């Protein structure tokens, strides 16, 4: 059997967003599952939009996600170079051959002329197709234009036929080539068009499976026609379903199609994002969702990919007014956190993995998030025993690593005080001091060790004082933290432990000038 060879072919004109990363992942997983090769190819023929910065971000994103490529930039391989701008001589060789075989021709029409014809078609409400003006130029006319150095594009002489894309996910899809027209293979700057370069490269790199987003399905008949013109064997095509947001609409650049590196900053582990993305359009044979990497790499199969749109439920549905103003890519992790859907599948998976990973790994992963934490420097190492033990007791409550530092900070907090007058007044107003006293007494006479037990004590305090909601929780928050908002109290209390908690209440009572007993 021939070796399976898949490729991810990003254009370096932005960051790697979830849609692109899902495409990369499907290619990666399929190659792994079939014991084949995963190739990375950089499609930078759009010189105006391609940047070095984007290239670097894409590579970093793939590496963070653990998708190492077998052939490609930095790694090399037998079919390089793997960056299209370094392959222009190869495309030229093939273009000359196509022109020689009369399967392509030079088009000297000026862009103004074409633009005018396009406008005319538009005004008549008909789709624009090139009229083939240059398709039958005589050799003399061509030579004449070339000697005048007239700029030209190279167009494909599209044969008139029905093209059937036999797609592994979308099924058989028919296209009529007469609706495509003679399209451009080489632009006037000498760079190949996407559809052209992709075919030469997929053929020469011996790609067996082209897996990509369904948005590219309409490009496929053009590509098939080029494969056929050269007599190259066709790869199998698989176009993965569209990804939609919680509102059922296509992910937009501003809200949803977020850089995968933002997920690293939000404190998700890379395996979580991978596991989650694998399920965007694919289901495992036994319906299992939470899977280890090794399992994903062995059970993934294109046959189990679905045509129906996949829902990316990571972000909340935006309010009408937010749709105009919000741009996720301009927000930092804290800002972006506000838009996360707390009940997303991603959070569920993330919490599970944070509980499951070896604590040493978690400590290491935690380090970048501790850099700015207000804790003594010696505890900022992910291997410090105290830090590790705090992390170990708090991890079951975390959906993301970024949620841990505030708990760790509270744990180390020494000079307790009220952060502002509001925080203090929450304790001193109304029944606040009674609530605080009652809570203190109840803690003294109990031995709580879990968030549930602390919750119970808080409700007990509520019953005794006939307070509930804000007037119950705020005085408790104030007397234990000196703040008016913040962490989940039962979790914090469990982490601090009864003794430390008691001490904190005594200190804050002194600052507020009240007595607790
Ligand atoms: N460079 C194309 C893109 O980024 C690749 C499409 C393909 O996989 O053929 O969309």
Automatic annotation (TrEMBL):
GO molecular-function terms, A-Z: ATP binding; glutamate-tRNA ligase activity; tRNA binding; zinc ion binding
The cofactors named for this UniProt entry are: Zn(2+)
Task: Classify the source by domain of life.
Answer: Bacteria
Motif 'KMSKS' region location, chain numbering: 250-254
Motif 'HIGH' region, per the record, lies over 10-20
The main enzyme category here is: ligase
Residues that hold Zn(2+) according to the record: 107, 109, 134, 136
What's the Enzyme Commission number for this chain? 6.1.1.17
Q: How is the cofactor bound?
A: Binds 1 zinc ion per subunit.
Main location, first listed in the record: cytoplasm
Q: Where does ATP bind?
A: 253
* GO cellular component terms given for this protein: cytosol
Q: Which family does it belong to?
A: Belongs to the class-I aminoacyl-tRNA synthetase family. Glutamate--tRNA ligase type 1 subfamily.
Which HAMAP family does the entry mention? Glu_tRNA_synth_type1
Which function does this protein serve? Catalyzes the attachment of glutamate to tRNA(Glu) in a two-step reaction: glutamate is first activated by ATP to form Glu-AMP and then transferred to the acceptor end of tRNA(Glu).
The protein's name is Glutamate--tRNA ligase
Organism, as annotated: Leptospira ilyithenensis
